[in-house]
Design brief:
The complex is a heterodimer of chains A (351) and B (615).
Chain A (H helix, E strand, L loop, with lengths): L1 E5 L2 E5 L20 H11 L10 E5 L7 H4 L3 E4 L5 H11 L4 E7 H7 L1 H10 L3 E7 L34 H7 L4 E6 L3 H13 L4 E6 L11 H4 L1 H7 E3 L7 E2 L5 E6 L2 E6 L21 H8 L8 E8 L5 H15 L5 H5 L4 E4 L5
Parallel strand pairs in A: 3-4, 3-5, 5-6, 6-8, 7-8, 9-13
Antiparallel strand pairs in A: 1-2, 7-13, 10-11, 11-12
Chain B lengths: L7 E5 L1 E9 L4 H15 L2 E7 L14 E9 L12 E4 L2 H8 L7 E5 L5 H6 L16 E5 L1 H8 L7 H6 L1 H12 L5 H10 L4 H20 L5 E5 L7 E7 H16 L3 E5 L6 H8 L7 E4 L3 H13 L3 E6 L1 H17 L3 E7 L16 H6 L8 E4 L5 H16 L2 E7 H5 L1 E5 L44 E3 L14 H17 L15 E8 L3 H13 L4 E6 L1 E3 L5 H6 L1 E8 L4 H10 L4 E4 L8 H11 L5
Parallel strand pairs in B: 1-8, 2-5, 5-6, 6-7, 10-11, 10-12, 12-13, 13-15, 14-15, 18-19, 18-21, 21-22
Antiparallel strand pairs in B: 2-4, 3-4, 9-16, 14-20
Helix pairs in contact in B: 1-6, 4-6, 4-8, 6-8, 7-8, 9-10, 9-14, 11-12, 17-20
Classes of the chains: A alpha/beta (351), B alpha/beta (615).
Bound molecules: iron/sulfur cluster.
The site of iron/sulfur cluster has 11 residues of chain A, from loops.
Chain lengths: 351, 615
């Protein structure tokens, strides 16, 4: 329940998903993972304790960047790669707003890479939702900076030779204070991560694996199909051991800096030997190691909150400095401000 | 006992001085201090700093020479002077680089201590110009500035290097004496600046006083000069550079509009001082954001404008190029943003510290699609204040990006600024919608301006963006007729700004043979040149454009009243091209692309030649 101010009337309102649905027809391809992300956001947004008018959604260019048009909040559909820069301006100008960025792997990590790392570095209090489908959808199927090496696409008929980005590691590398991952086919998990992102004070970076059924169908099939999912996904839960597998019979142990997949079935390891996840870990090192899993053979892909950290936000630091200076200096008239400094006066008849 | 030498005092109306030395010698500081004292003394003045792009070019080398020219007078003046009357040369390289500009028979004050074999060689002098024929016809005054400075600092416990660095204050002190300027302003400045370094404070102060007394006590100078205060209009004044004036204009606009000021910027020469300057106003709640690049700076302004700030960004040519796509987004979303382009020599990196007017096409035409933006161009350093304010006023009233063109010459040059009263500043009208108002994102008022609904206002949730939007409702629309309608509407809105623009004034006859039409920073040189030719009896009229897009409503009629129109500009004829295509008339050009401003004499001679030579 939130208090909303309608002109003079103050009302207690309970927002619902419907309040966040705009009048615009949603135009993603049928079957696209974006639908589920949108639905979960509309479902969970009413629980954020934020008045509807205080949401601002900002995006760049790409399929995912149409997102703001479908949310009935304030929004800016920006230009390619620049959503985080626009959002930074919004947040700095009015820190009371809840500012969200919808972006894709091409938008955030290719053309927008510079803005992405600097926004995260500054810990601007915005939430960045990265729709990672490992492909360029809107331009009809070129490989992206998260496409796996060897990817055959329209622009790489013989396979791509570039090494891909690991988005969460990039974020951790520049000091991200909230790093999480979810997937389009897990509505409850997505809602949970969105809510945690909403609650975070600072840059919240949430990567969502999203299936582009037109140009990169099945990119995450292993992580979503019933038969393979349990063996390929590990859900990170705070203070819980890293367990996965069909019968919860596998786990991860950490040997120095080296993670190992072990069996809990053969008697060599028990659940007490396993790596216990700590989302508030003071050091980012273990979160780094978790990001490696997607690059290691036979490791499950972690979903969940990798790490968060309490750190003053950019906008708070800016405001703090302003407030300190305001308290020191009480200048306020036009003439004091504009006419300060070394001045001289010329009277009516010359000096 | 030292006997005081009686000195003659000679009255002058008008003097141009140039300080020149190594870029490490503190010439800009010396020039600025001299300007401040001169301003406080009450002369009209105009300055022209000129320094290399390298921060510390090799000492003593020709390309490391930094200069600062100052023209001051007891009359109203427009330019920093064509050629200096006095050159202060701190080393041989400074002499070599600047000698060609000096007025015939002018005075050269040299730091003779620096004329050693090594420095002469660095300056590529085969023999010592103080001893051969090089300076024949000039009035050369040799002062051992380094030696005298060391002597004055005999008992001050600072390093030799520090002592050497004080010689510019010696030179400054000497010039204060020579031109009868008050010295106390600079003394106070030194005391404030070096508060925490008492020895450096003492060294600088002693050097300054030593220079002053040197003039008084030695026989080197027999005459000192006096320039009476100018008769400027009554009011409170301060000396101000174009960049400072832009910053103050924005502060004034934020004050008057009661909206917070947001600056998103990325450092670039010669615009960075605006960022520096505005960063000092945090105590007023000004938010300055040094972004990761030019694009982010512009984009942050889009976010801040959406949110209700007076949103401004500052840059120079290369940065403007990077911002263009985002400026297009500003046009499409119809948000109020001011973009300042402090033009410099181009293309590409070009001449970063030099001046040019070659971004005109870029400002007017440089975006994809039909993308009109209001463009203004400041005429003088203090006009930067007026037009920065005006740019904000127009941006907010018409919900549109506005580009303000200044340039390196205006940005760094300074002149006395009459501080306006708050009541003199025009009202800044905004379209902010209040809860309860009827609201559609792309509805229009009588100025075709759309309403400004700020996030946080219940009931007005709406989306804007780069995709074409439907008239009134603002939904994404691919309807062909709607697109054409919206393209026309955006154009019409910017055209409508013309209703704000005062008629362009013509100086001289209102019709005739020749109109000299200028725009932006060439104002001073053109004005001076036209004054001179008119004094010689030529019938020449003058008009100056500060509103570039749209133009003043009467411009077409003004132009048609003259047989010939001459446009002097610091590019290959960009404004000439615009005027030709707009009014279908022939235009004469006078172009200079050397990274330097026009000298009044260059324009004067050109006009005289056009009119058939000396009569
Ligand atoms: S192209 Fe791919 S990502 Fe884009 S809307 Fe279609 S399915 Fe979704």
């Amino acid at each position: 329940m939130i208090t909303q101010n309608f002109g003079n009337a103050i009302k207690e309102v309970q927002l619902t998903a419907k309040d966040f649905q705009s009048s615009q027809e949603v135009k993603w391809c049928p079957g696209c993972g974006d639908y589920s992300i949108l639905a979960q956001m509309q479902r969970v947004a009413p629980t954020f304790e934020v008045s509807k008018e205080n949401f601002v959604w900002v995006s760049g260019i790409g399929c995912s960047s149409r997102f703001p048009y479908y949310m009935d909040t304030y929004g800016i559909h920006g230009i390619h790669g620049r959503a985080t820069a626009i959002a930074t301006g919004v947040k700095l100008s009015n820190p009371n707003l809840s500012v969200w960025v919808a972006t894709g792997d091409g938008d955030a990590l290719s053309i927008g890479g510079n803005h992405f790392i600097h926004t995260v570095r500054r810990n601007v209090g915005i939430k960045i939702i990265l729709f990672n489908n490992k492909i360029y959808g809107l331009t009809k199927g070129q490989y992206s900076p998260t496409s796996e090496q060897g990817k055959k696409t329209k622009s790489t008929p013989f396979g791509s030779v570039d090494y891909p980005f690991n988005p969460l590691r990039v974020a951790l590398g520049v000091g991200a204070t909230f790093v999480a991952r979810s997937i389009d086919r897990e509505p409850k998990h997505m809602q949970d991560m969105m809510k945690k992102a909403a609650e975070h004070n600072g840059t919240a970076f949430l990567e969502i694996y999203q299936n582009c059924n037109i140009f990169n169908d099945g990119a995450y099939a292993n992580l979503t199909e019933k038969e393979t999912k349990a063996e390929h996904v590990i859900i990170l839960e705070d203070k819980q051991p890293l367990v996965f597998g069909n019968n919860k019979d596998k786990g991860i142990v950490l040997d120095g800096f080296t993670p190992k997949v072990v069996s809990l079935a053969d008697g060599k390891y028990s659940i007490n030997d396993l790596w216990v996840h700590d989302e508030n870990d003071l050091s980012p090192v273990r979160a780094f190691i978790l990001t490696q899993f997607t690059e290691l053979d036979d490791f499950p892909t972690p979903l969940g909150l990798f790490r968060k950290e309490v750190k003053p936000t950019f906008e708070d630091l800016v405001d703090e400095q302003i407030n300190e200076l305001k308290a020191l200096k009480k200048t306020s008239t036009f003439d004091e401000i504009i006419g300060g400094g070394n001045t001289w006066t010329i009277s009516g008849n010359g000096k | 006992m030292i006997e005081k030498i009686e000195k003659k005092v000679q009255k002058l109306d008008d003097v141009t001085v140039r300080f020149a030395g190594d870029s490490g010698d503190g010439m800009q500081l010396t020039g600025t201090q001299f300007s401040t004292s001169t301003a406080l003394f009450g002369n009209d003045l105009s300055t022209l700093p000129d320094y290399p792009a390298e921060i510390r070019a090799p000492a003593g080398s020709l390309h490391g020479v930094s200069g600062f020219q100052l023209h001051f007078s007891s009359n109203d003046i427009d330019t920093p002077g064509d050629s200096p009357d006095v050159l202060v040369a701190m080393n041989p390289a400074a002499l070599k680089v600047n000698l060609k500009d000096l007025k015939k028979g002018g005075t050269i004050i040299v730091n003779v201590s620096s004329f050693d074999a090594k420095n002469l060689q660095l300056a590529k002098y085969e023999s010592n110009p103080l001893e051969d024929e090089t300076l024949k016809g000039y009035n050369v005054v040799q002062v051992p500035m380094t030696k005298a400075t060391f002597h004055a600092l005999d008992e001050v416990a600072v390093s030799m290097k520090e002592k050497d660095r004080c010689k510019n204050f010696f030179a400054l002190g000497l010039m204060f004496w020579l031109f009868s300027r008050p010295i106390d302003g600079t003394v106070k400045w030194i005391e404030d600046k070096f508060k925490s370094k008492p020895l450096i404070l003492e060294a600088n102060k002693k050097s300054l006083l030593a220079g002053y007394h040197y003039g008084e006590m030695t026989e080197v100078f027999t005459t000192r000069f006096f320039i009476e205060p100018a008769k400027l209009p009554p009011g409170k004044y301060k000396n101000i550079s174009g960049n400072e004036a832009v910053a103050l204009g924005f502060i004034a606009a934020s004050y008057k509009s009661e909206l917070p000021l947001f600056l998103g910027s990325y450092p670039i020469t010669p615009a960075s001082e605006i960022l520096h300057e505005l960063s000092h106003y945090k105590y007023l709640g000004v938010k300055t954001f040094q972004a990761e690049d030019e694009i982010a700076a512009m984009c942050s302004c889009i976010g801040a404008a959406f949110t209700g700030s007076v949103s401004v960004t500052t840059t120079s040519g290369p940065g403007l190029a990077l911002k263009m796509e985002a400026i297009g987004l500003g046009v499409m979303t119809e948000l109020p943003i001011v973009i300042v382009d402090v033009q410099r020599g181009g293309p590409s990196t070009g001449l970063p510290t030099k001046t040019e007017q070659s971004d005109l096409f870029q400002a007017v035409y440089g975006r994809n699609g039909e993308c009109p933006v209001c463009v203004l161009a400041a005429a003088t350093p203090t006009d930067c204040f007026t037009l920065a304010y005006e740019a904000v006023r127009i941006a907010i009233k018409y919900m549109t990006p506005v580009i303000l063109l200044t340039d390196g010459y205006l940005a760094q040059g300074s002149e006395p600024f009459r501080i306006p009263e708050e009541s003199e500043m025009p009202e800044i009208i905004n379209n902010i919608v209040k809860p309860g108002d009827e609201y559609y994102p792309y509805s229009r008022n009588e100025n075709l301006s759309r309403p400004w609904a700020l996030p946080g206002t219940p009931g007005f949730e709406h989306r804007i963006g780069g995709l074409e939007k439907s008239h009134i409702y603002g939904h994404v629309s691919y309807v062909p007729e709607n697109h054409e309608f919206m393209v026309n509407l955006r154009q019409e809105k910017v055209d409508k700004i013309q209703q704000e623009i005062p008629d362009i004034a013509v100086r001289g006859e209102q019709e005739g043979d020749l109109l000299v039409l200028g725009w932006g920073s060439t104002y001073g040189a053109i004005n001076e040149a036209v004054t001179r030719v008119r004094e010689q009896g030529y019938k020449v009229s003058q008009a100056h454009m500060r509103y570039i897009y749209p133009v003043a409503p009467n411009l077409g009629n003004v132009i048609k009243n003259f047989k010939r129109v001459l446009i002097p500009e610091l590019n290959l004829g960009q404004m000439a091209t615009i005027i030709r295509s707009k009014f279908l008339i022939e235009v004469l050009q006078l172009n200079k692309v050397q990274g330097l401003p026009f000298k009044a004499s260059e324009i004067e001679n050109h006009i005289i030649n056009l009119l058939g030579g000396k009569q």
